[in-house]
Amino acid sequence: MKAGVRADDHGRPGGTGFVRTTPGTRLAAIILFGLGATALTMAVAQRASMDPGLPLIFWCEIGVGLGALTISGWVWALRPREMATRLFALSGLATLAFTFAAATFAGGAVEPRSLAIAMIWLNAIGASGFGLTMIWLFLVYPVRLPHWPWITAACAVSVTAFTVLSRGGYLPAWATIHLLTVIEMAAIALAIIGQLLATRRAPRDRAIAVWFGLSVLFGAGGFITLNALPQVLGMPVVIKAGYAFMFFLLIYIGVAAGLRQYRLFELGEWAFRILFYVVGSLALVALDVALVGLLSVGPGMALGLSLLAVGFLYLPLRDALARRFTSRPGLSEQEIFREVVALAFQPVQQDRPGQWQQLLTRLFDPLEIRTASDAGDQPEIREDGLELVVPSVSGIPATSLRYPWAGRSLFGAAHVRTAQHLLQLMAHADASRDAYDRGVAEERGRIARDMHDNIGAQLLGALHSRDDERKNSMIRETLTDLRDIINNASHGTPTLDETLADLRVETAERLDSVDIALDWSNSSDEAAPLPAAAAHALRSVVREAVSNAIRHSGASHIRIRIERLAGRLTLVIEDDGHGFDAAAVVAGNGLANMRGRISGLGGELSFSSLEPGSRLVAAFRAGDNQGLEA
Fold first, then answer.
1. Strand pairing partners for 604?
2. What is the pLDDT of residues 514-523, one digit of tens each?
3. Strands ordered across the beta sheet of 399-402
4. 482 — phi, psi (to 5°)?
């Protein structure tokens, strides 16, 4: 047999199977279904009030009919334009027809005779119609079998002719409706086998065919085995037809359970919420009618008791059923956030892919999880819900998840949104980690620069100091500066004059210890506070330049000029040493640190060679309340 094909929204092959119904169409179908079920419930209550002595078999038959109508109508109301759901709804109507027709005989003979004949015909039409509808349904769902229109037409003609001729007395006595139902059951079994063969390479469709097929085989097959087949063979029935009808509920209960596990008819968990509300409404109406009709309770009192019963009995039961059918193990928002943050800040990068897969496993519990090589930019559902592909994020390879929740369900749109949310969280956490790493690197760089520029220069000055008391004082000051560097602290906000006064004394002592004369001039016209960053840069540049002059220039005289006008500070340092070749000079840590500090303040640093000596010029913003403004 050739493989079948999936049907699109209008019954054409090759579609996705999802129905694009408008909200208005779906709402109208749900309202129609609810009104019909409510009317039938009220009719049953009215019938019971007229004859309180109805036997138990009556209620069994009525319960089966209403149950079949409720579940099949529910499915159809949610997908009203799909062929499979229409056929399923027809099967529910057919079940309602033959069960209600049979229930009319539960209290004894039916009068007038014309009504009895009509009920007999209704029972026959309903029974044969159920079988025909199920054959048709399995010819098109979950995949379209080859030549299904011709097979359906042939079955329809045969079943209709057999039903009319049998009930009209034109066939032998053994050609009863029971024989027709047995033949139809065999045809249903053949159609199920055809679906199993057609879906052998489509795991999701095959799972649907197995589940739905078993529900029908056990449901309709149970009735055939215990009631119809014995009558065809001339044997006593094992169980009365009214009670054997209960097996038909297995079909509809199986479909309701299969919706959660296999998304039969493309319905998801949201369908259960609609069913629960519809059932609650029906229960309220039925109880109100029963109290008024059977117990003669006043309308106001009956409505109050009905609301009380539904509120205290049905609503807790509804919540328990909702948790049972729609809830799945997973992680809360807080747990997901903690897991993602821990993963993003994982110190060992090689462990991140494994931890990412563990997180996805805790969320979706797949039977199979592996690296994917053909992922896109967004999470994607494949194989009709069997697989979810999560794209690469933060250096973690793309991941394929198959058979979620230990193979008991399928992926849906909500799970795609969960994966997208997870990816966004991971990207944000990873960006935060990168910012943290950059901050750590910058802080380490700052400490390294300060250690090189300030601590090194101060210790060098202490080393060359001839005064032991001054040497000890400089070492103590160096320790204080070292603590400030580590803690990134500052002692208030000194003015430019205070900063220059301390720096001039320090520089003079350093140069005096190596017999280098100092010419210091300050032409600043402002006494406002000097921003901490500018003061730090000024000290570092002066200390590093003086250290270089002491070690390399061979100078006997150094001239330092500081000028601050309109918030802009200019520093010029000149010496009379042997100078340098500006084209051949190689910048070490000291020159790089000076350039980094000045450029960080939006300024410029330049070096030039003199005859004799060298010159350093640094200019940057250092105005009031301007911080690091360039």
1. 619
2. 888 989 988 7
3. 368-371, 399-402, 387-390, 380-382
4. -65, -40
